[in-house]
Design goal:
9 helices; four-stranded antiparallel β-sheet; alpha/beta; about 25% strand; six-stranded mixed β-sheet; Rossmann fold; binds adenosine-5'-triphosphate; single chain
Length: about 260
């Protein structure tokens, strides 16, 4: 197992954002985390990357207990994420944004360029080469010198993924990557995530776009009011009465309305 979530709970004051949630993700899987607004999905990402510590329970990554480890250590171990709200450096080029992502892995800091040694220059060149490769992967190489803020919305979301990949993750967490995308952008996002999987990277994705989730994911866990309601293949989830009642049925009603 790449990631094991073991009886994890998180309370914020009186709010039980997560209650005793467990699931495990296998190497190479695309695993979906779905559920209504406020179900605790982003909180789970925040616990895995230790923005917050769980109130109880354990998070194990490649057989190592990472609960409470500093966020940058977790990145070094090989977990990287994107955010629900785009968090790019808007005034930096696409290329530089990806290079910054790679710096979490390199020995020198981002702004330590005053006394640049030969080794640092070489490292910088390698970061740039790697960033260019990633921009090719996400289809943004031609836009590498554009400021992030001048990219279209779907392109910004792809740039975020490239930046996360720059830290060479073994596990990539994607928080609503298709939010705000049109159908064409969502289709190419599907292709991109499949390519990421084919490179041996395990993916955990939070997403509200159900056709995408059902097409993309190998397995899915459904959260509802902080608890795990169900887990299974897309087919099993789509046919689970409790899930239809709590979530999927409501999505359809919203679409009809
Ligand atoms: N930092 C925080 N402080 C207090 N309460 C929080 C905090 N973060 C999340 N919560 C609460 O925890 C619950 C779960 O929120 P969370 O953002 O994890 O849900 P979600 O499933 O990601 O929802 P959405 O689909 O809307 O993004 C909510 O009741 C939310 O208000």
């Amino acid at each position: 197992m790449v990631l094991e979530i073991k009886n994890v709970s998180k309370n914020f004051g009186g709010i039980h954002a997560l209650r005793n949630v467990s699931f495990s993700i296998k190497q190479g899987e695309i695993y979906g985390l779905i559920g209504p607004n406020g179900a605790g999905k982003t909180t789970m990402f925040n616990l895995i990357t230790n923005i917050f510590e769980p109130s109880s329970g354990e998070i194990v990554f490649n057989d190592e207990n990472i609960t409470g480890l500093k966020s940058h250590k977790i990145t070094e171990k090989g977990i990287c994420r994107t955010y629900q709200n785009i968090r790019l450096f808007s005034q930096m080029s696409a290329l530089k944004n990806v290079m910054v992502g790679g710096h979490s892995r390199s020995s020198s800091g981002v702004f330590s360029s005053v006394f640049r040694t030969k080794a640092q220059r070489k490292e910088e060149q390698e970061l740039e080469k790697n960033a260019e490769e990633l921009l090719k992967l996400v289809g943004l190489f031609e836009n590498k010198d554009l400021l992030a803020e001048n990219l279209a919305y779907g392109q910004q979301r792809r740039l975020e993924i490239a930046r996360a990949l720059a830290s060479k993750p073994k596990l990539l967490l994607l928080d609503e990557p298709a939010a705000g995308m049109n159908e064409k952008e969502t289709d190419s996002l599907y292709d991109l995530i499949k390519i990421i999987q084919s490179k041996g990277i395990t993916v955990l994705i939070i997403e509200h776009d159900m056709p995408l989730v059902m097409k993309l994911c190998d397995r899915i866990a459904v959260l509802n009011f902080g608890e795990k309601l169900a887990e299974g293949t897309p087919y099993e989830i789509q046919n689970n009465e409790a899930v239809i009642e709590a979530y999927l049925g409501k999505e359809e009603e919203e679409e009809i309305a």
